[in-house]
Amino acid sequence: MSPRSAGFQPAFSPLVTDSVATSAVNIRRRKRLPHWEASGRIYFVTFRLVDSLPASLLRRIVSKRRQALEKAPASCRPDSLSERKRLKRLFSRRIEAYLDAGKGCCSLAHPAVAEIVAEAIRHFDGLRYELFAWCIMPNHVHVVFRPLKENSLAAILHSWKSFTAQSANRILGRTGIFWQREYYDHLVRNGEQFARAIRYIAQNPGRAGLKNWKWMWISQAD
Questions:
Q1: pTM of the full predicted structure?
Q2: Residues 47 and 137 in one domain
């Protein structure tokens, strides 16, 4: 599948406002990462295979980012908040670059495994969540979606990962942990962030050197 929105821009305008103030935001913490959840909002989520990032590398990146962020507020610069945001982006890009380099077993490059994950993501579209875009890379997955009704972000991710882990292990003739337990989510706050998330997904295979990559979809709603 390939992106069908002209210039990789979303061909529709989902309801995304400039603030989350109109919805109650709950902050859930698991291990290192806080997860911001708000009813009826859109998320850009990334989850990855268990061996896609060495634990030692992740610890170093997280430690360096924490140190850099602790120093930023003490800066004499008037734009210290902007500096904090810049540092977050910088270290996030380091993780993204490592993932895109295709480290680990890259089980998602196996067509049968990729199809299992794609089917799981598509399965409850319109029932439990509304999909806007997704991309299955060799060792990680990106999805932009909006949970519907009482379905929570955590429950949706658990459903995708638990079903696909069992099926993928069966296909690959292996056992053990398939997905990294933690996932990365970004609460989309406005139309600009939404367009950026869609563009990131559309361009991700090309940045990683994957030509004619089949495992990507972008909605073209009216």
A1: 0.70
A2: yes
